From TrEMBL:
Keywords: Dioxygenase, Oxidoreductase. It comes from the Bacteria. Residues 111-207 form the Fe2OG dioxygenase domain. The lineage of its organism: Bacteria, Bacillati, Actinomycetota, Actinomycetes, Pseudonocardiales. This is DNA-N1-methyladenine dioxygenase.
Length: 212
């Protein structure tokens, strides 16, 4: 797939030019409340543009449909997700995802075993406010997200009401949600007219994988 996105001129990456974690970049914690937090590490991946190019061109992207209950019409209807997705068990994911998962596992003390990607082709693609499904199996799941490609807004809001936190994530940045974030907060990547293409590579731990 060819996408209209001009990557930065800074190649970066490891000595062979491959995308890699920059060990000098330390995540900064944003405390959302006394149970939930977000870690942010801008420019955590060097050579992120090469990862973006490879994953957009080579990953087995698909567009999922899901049945959603529409309270206004009092019936379920089929909704096509406004983004492309794909996913793997970590050991089957293309490089550098397994190496990045290993760095995350060492840092956060959990075994990241599932990699799932979202491809927002333009500013019309999005993900609505939600908590991740890992909340059904985990009391305090850690969800790590590496951004590739163009910058996008990332919103977090408390489920019980209150002010939203709005962040911007750019290519190479790491964002990690932890504590009770998936239970007591929701997150979104809103539509953003004019935005360029972005991929999010998400890492989840002790994850049984997608439901059939
Ligand atoms: O693209 C992102 O940064 C968020 C993706 C997300 O919320 C999800 O995959 O559950
Ligand atoms: Fe999510």
């Amino acid at each position: 797939m060819t996408v209209a996105w001009t990557p930065s001129l800074f190649g970066g990456g490891d000595t062979a030019g491959n995308p890699a974690v920059d060990p000098a970049v330390v995540p900064r914690r944003i405390v959302l409340d006394d149970r939930s937090w977000v870690d942010l590490a801008p420019a955590w991946i060097t050579g992120a543009d090469a990862w973006f190019d490879a994953i957009t061109a080579e990953a087995p992207w698909g567009q999922r449909q899901r049945r959603m209950y529409d309270p206004a019409r009092r019936e379920a209807s089929t909704v096509i997700e406004p983004r492309l997705t794909c996913g793997w068990r970590v050991e089957e994911a293309p490089d550098p995802a397994p190496a990045v998962a290993a760095v995350l596992s060492a840092r956060y003390g959990v075994r990241f075993d599932r990699v799932a990607c979202n491809f927002y082709r333009d500013g019309q693609d999005s993900v609505a406010w939600h908590g991740d499904r890992v909340r059904f199996t985990h009391e305090a799941p850690i969800v790590a997200i590496v951004s590739l490609g163009a910058p996008r807004r990332f919103g977090l809001r408390p489920l019980g009401g209150g002010a939203a936190t709005r962040l911007t994530v750019a290519g190479g940045d790491l964002l990690v949600m932890g504590g009770r974030c998936q239970h007591e907060w929701q997150h979104t990547v809103p539509k953003w007219p004019g935005a360029g293409p972005r991929v999010s590579v998400t890492f989840r731990h002790d994850d049984p994988g997608p439901r059939p």
